[in-house]
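In the laboratory, one determines a bound structure by crystallizing the protein with its ligand and collecting diffraction data. In a computational setting the workflow is compressed into a single prediction: the sequence and the ligand go in, and a structural description comes out. We illustrate the idea with glutathione.
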Amino acid sequence: MKIIIGNKNYSSWSLRAWLALKATGLPFDEVLIDLDAPDTAERIAAHSAAGRVPVLVDGDVTVWDSLAIAEYLAEKAPEANLWPTDPAARAVARAIAAEMHSGFGGLRGHFPMNIRRPPAVREPTPAAAADIARVREIWRTARARFGAGGPFLFGAFTIADAFYAPVVSRFATYRIPVGPVEAAYMDAVMAFGPMAEWAEAGRAETWVVPSDEVD
Ligand SMILES: N[C@@H](CCC(=O)N[C@@H](CS)C(=O)NCC(=O)O)C(=O)O
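The predicted complex, in structure-token form:
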């Protein structure tokens, strides 16, 4: 398999799909496209007419969109349990991944993922504050209801964690205040091997995307 991704420092959608792919344990190649270069659109178009990364290529199958990629990987590697095995937990995991996929514009817009930015407080807008409260509620609820088997939302690492990993990074970067349950969850995500690997690579990048650099 081959995954086409954006800059590791900035591309939150790429991170989601890449983490899910890593969690399968399957080998893959990656192609990184700088998202702020003159030839960005042309390079992405060579892989997907949708014009967005991430894109997964598996032989003659091309899948675009991070959620579709995650679902494809869950089917391809059932032994990896990318979704929780319990049906009730799986339903909630899908719901919160979908909620992240289709929402949280206030948070996303005001707090761009920027892994190498030195952590410093940035005050939220009202929309971002509402999104932060909802994310914290999601994390606390999942940990309390389903998290007994491990440090992640549903115990073991699942697609739900992959989808919230960029938010974990943002909360750390912009020093969003959280409670002890959320802080422990954030520590677990940041310590997850593939997340640490991605973050290290992101910090080493030198591309600058001005629109994602905020005070
Ligand atoms: N809903 C899509 C969103 C993908 C997306 O917006 N990707 C951004 C990068 S994070 C992109 O490809 N931008 C293209 C560009 O900047 O030219 C997904 O989940 O994959």
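The chain has a mean pLDDT of 97. Keep in mind that any predicted model is a hypothesis to be tested, not a measurement.
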